[in-house]
Fold:
Amino acid sequence: MRAVPEWVATHDDQAIPPRVKVRIFERHEGRCYLSGLKINPGDKWECEHQLALSLGGEHRESNLAPALVAPHKIKTTADRRMKAKNDRVRKRHLGIRKTSRFPGSRDSAWKKKIDGTVVRR
Structure:
């Protein structure tokens, strides 16, 4: 059983209190959870969501871990790429697509025939 109740944010933009950062750092024994490297004094590190908020993670103490800045940027890029792909697949499945503004495209009111003449669809 925990001696201290778990910190849970009231909204996704809430800053993580310093006391919680200390607990997170100590829980992971001062190691970057992405690279496994020891975080030395003076190294730049951040509290990182193990399951990204955009992928359904929660802004709470149990979902946070210390990460050095460089590996954190790499993971964030991968998370964003995964979220964008999921969005594209979902939109395609639902039949949602951006209309093309290019004249002659299937969304245009005009159609160009093979002989070069332009007619209304």
Q: What stands out?
A: Residues 69-94 form the longest helix (26 residues). The mean pLDDT is 91. Strands lie at 45-49, 64-68, 110-112, 118-120. The chain has one domain: 18-120.
